């Protein structure tokens, strides 16, 4: 499913997108597909599927530790795609891959996008690949009809906002804070003002991520944006509960509660 | 054309591969640096600090005994004699002064061996700016004296307990701090690595080494040397030393990396054993697996224990302007011993790698003139060396 169609559908239903992040291979590769399907069942609209990197510069302790744990399982880009293939027919919601540039660069952009397309990936987010370095990336994404998603942050200048808004497809990832991922208190008025300004120049949906970790924040931020991205909170929940009985049901209920 | 280009590239290496939040700070830094470079007051103040406080110019010393032993003409550029014990102070004073001119209230830094941390703590104290240094827990164990020195100088040393607990993680943590505290904080990066403009700024502040050396050797011998030899971790002392000789095509550059355990074991030889990739802000040679995950590095010298290298070195390698070699932990200890016994100079373990390389050079370079950049002194390494029962 295309991101554009998903946002249209949500719009018609009068809903905002609830996007859930979790990393491949955490806590073990064997859990990944079950977690994916539990999140889907719990009402997640879009999955932001993390491909872990050894040096995640923009991530806080929760995702750093999850990435390190996943890397111990000897994950590779190939095993990532092979794994998705196994549940491809059960996937009903759009998937976006989030990673850092080097694993994709080593795999070669065109190979990566080819595999991504074969496996129903709708968009890609590369944390350390800013707009200026993205000529080839944007070109290849277009060739394979995958949406390259870029970040706008509180420190992005008005001039850059215009360029990024023009090039980001599917949605724009607005970073709520100047900082790294992980639970934070958020200033709604600042975020709302920034989003208003971005919305003045683009029709592309704007979703907000970083720091969002409870139901109240989800509700509040959804009220003035097109959706929210929840990452560390979900990773933390997985970490705390995966050894327990009925873990998947608990996870499903947890995301349902977060978005309700 | 002078490199890096406008986008921060040295050939196909360099660039700015960073989370979006940092693009604002890097632009601010680039603009501030461009203006200040031409500012007479800044230049004068930095020159005074380097000469009167840090102890520049440093001597170029002809090493008689070592020369006789090796059959080479060995000159040593004595960066080890600088205040705080290493070449790191050249960059720390330059950038701390830049931070002060930019009105920043807080300086953060990463450190491996602790030399850059000590240099930054020194410069920050001198200029009255708060200083916090990220250091891997393993390095804090290995370089206790430097941790204590930083604390005496009033800096806060923050242990980094994730991953390898060494320089690579300390650097990531410093970037994360910077992303979080962009408005009042200056990130004083210690080597010619990271996103543009750092490789350029740090190089510019370190070229004082090569500029002095060039004048000194011409005064001493009336001609240029055959070889320049320096150790390479991130590569700041080497670039600062090499760069002013760039156009002197007959002067050969040799960068000496850490081969660590040697023979297929863990190393820190990014240029010799790595391949191009994107890591901590720039495209350069890195030690990595087939899948683009960055490997753990190892070197007996904490200042070389890093799986990446400055993009300008990758460029020098690609155009064959410099030759990069690797020397193991054991060989570095032999180099440490060699300089101590022949010349009464105890080197840091980082340049001890370059000292050892002179033995290899002696095999094919009989009678040649070689200048070694002795980037730091060995006091900080006595605990490590003691373990090996020299």
Can you characterise this structure?
- The complex is a heterodimer of chains A (260) and B (390).
- Chain A is an alpha/beta fold and 260 residues long.
- Chain A is 50% helix and 15% strand.
- In chain A, helix 5 crosses helix 6 and helix 11 runs antiparallel to helix 12.
- Chain B has 15 helices and 14 strands.
- The longest helix of chain B is centred in the middle third of the chain and has 24 residues, at 198-221.
- Classes of the chains: A alpha/beta (260), B alpha/beta (390).
Please provide the count of β strands of chain B.
14
Give the H and E element order of chain A: HEHEHHEHHEHEEHEHEHEHH
The low-confidence parts of chain B are none
The number of helical runs of chain A is 12
N- to C-terminal separation of chain A? 23 Å
The radius of gyration computed from the alpha-carbon positions of chain A, rounded to a whole number of angstroms, is 17 Å
Strand content of chain B: 15-25%
Terminal residue distance of chain B: 49 Å
What percentage of residues of chain A falls in helices of 4 or more residues? 40-55%
On the 0-100 scale, what is the average pLDDT of chain A?
Answer: 97
Q: How would the global form of chain B be characterised?
A: globular
Structural class by secondary-structure content of chain A: alpha/beta
How many alpha or pi helices of chain B? Answer: 15
Radius of gyration of chain B: 19 Å
């Amino acid at each position: 499913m295309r991101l554009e169609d998903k946002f249209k559908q949500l719009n018609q239903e009068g809903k905002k997108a609830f996007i859930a992040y979790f990393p491949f291979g955490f806590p073990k590769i064997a859990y990944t597909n079950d977690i994916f399907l539990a999140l889907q069942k719990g009402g997640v609209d879009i999955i932001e599927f993390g491909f872990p990197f050894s040096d995640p510069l923009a991530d806080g302790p929760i995702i750093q530790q999850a990435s390190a744990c996943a890397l111990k399982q000897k994950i590779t880009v190939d095993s990532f795609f092979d794994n998705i293939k196994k549940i491809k027919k059960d996937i009903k919601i759009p998937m976006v891959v989030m990673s850092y540039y080097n694993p994709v660069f080593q795999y070669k952009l065109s190979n990566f996008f080819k595999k991504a397309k074969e496996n129903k990936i709708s968009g890609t987010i590369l944390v350390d690949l800013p707009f200026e370095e993205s000529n080839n990336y944007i070109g290849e994404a277009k060739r394979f009809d995958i949406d390259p998603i870029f970040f706008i942050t509180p420190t992005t200048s008005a001039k850059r906002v215009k360029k990024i808004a023009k090039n980001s497809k599917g949605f724009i990832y607005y970073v709520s804070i100047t900082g790294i991922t992980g639970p934070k208190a958020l200033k709604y008025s600042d975020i709302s003002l920034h989003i208003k300004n971005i919305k003045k120049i683009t029709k592309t949906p704007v979703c907000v991520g970083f720091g969002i970790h409870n139901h109240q924040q989800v509700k509040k931020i959804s009220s003035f944006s097109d959706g929210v991205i929840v990452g560390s909170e979900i990773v933390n929940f997985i970490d705390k509960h995966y050894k327990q009985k009925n873990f998947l049901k608990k996870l499903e209920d947890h995301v349902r509660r977060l978005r309700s | 054309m002078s490199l890096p280009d406008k986008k921060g590239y040295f050939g196909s290496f360099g660039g700015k591969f960073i989370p979006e939040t940092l693009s604002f700070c890097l632009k601010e830094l680039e603009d501030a640096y461009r203006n200040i470079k031409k500012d007479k007051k800044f230049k004068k103040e930095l020159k005074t600090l380097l000469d009167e406080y840090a102890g520049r110019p440093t001597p170029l010393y002809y090493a008689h005994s070592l020369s006789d032993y090796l059959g080479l003409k060995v000159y040593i550029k004595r960066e080890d004699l600088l205040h705080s014990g290493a070449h790191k102070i050249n960059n720390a004073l330059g950038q701390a002064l830049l931070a002060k001119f930019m009105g920043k209230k807080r300086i953060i830094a990463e450190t491996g061996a602790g030399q850059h941390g000590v240099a930054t703590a020194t410069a920050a104290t001198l200029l009255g700016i708060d200083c916090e240094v990220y250091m891997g827990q393993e390095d804090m164990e290995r370089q206790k004296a430097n941790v204590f020195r930083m604390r005496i100088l009033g800096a806060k040393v923050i242990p980094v307990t994730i991953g390898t607990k060494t320089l690579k993680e300390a650097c990531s943590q410093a970037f994360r701090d910077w992303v979080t505290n962009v408005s009042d904080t200056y990130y004083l990066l210690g080597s010619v690595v990271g996103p543009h403009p750092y490789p350029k700024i740090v190089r510019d502040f370190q070229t004082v080494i090569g500029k002095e050396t060039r004048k000194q050797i011409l005064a001493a011998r009336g001609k240029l040397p055959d070889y320049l030899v320096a150790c390479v971790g991130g590569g700041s002392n080497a670039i600062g030393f090499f760069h002013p000789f760039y156009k002197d095509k007959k002067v050969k550059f040799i960068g000496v990396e850490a081969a660590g355990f040697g023979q297929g074991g863990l190393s820190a030889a990014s240029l010799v054993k790595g391949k191009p990739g994107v890591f901590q802000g720039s495209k350069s040679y890195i030690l990595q697996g087939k899948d683009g995950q960055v490997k753990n590095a190892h070197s007996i010298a904490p200042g070389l224990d890093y799986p990446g290298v400055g993009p300008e070195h990758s460029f020098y390698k690609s155009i064959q302007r410099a030759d990069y070699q690797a020397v193991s932990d054991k060989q570095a200890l032999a180099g440490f011993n060699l300089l101590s016994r022949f010349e009464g100079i105890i080197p840091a373990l980082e340049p001890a790698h370059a000292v050892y390389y002179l033995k290899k050079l002696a095999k094919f370079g009989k009678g040649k003139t070689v200048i070694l950049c002795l980037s730091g002194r060995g006091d900080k390494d006595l605990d490590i060396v003691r373990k090996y029962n020299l």
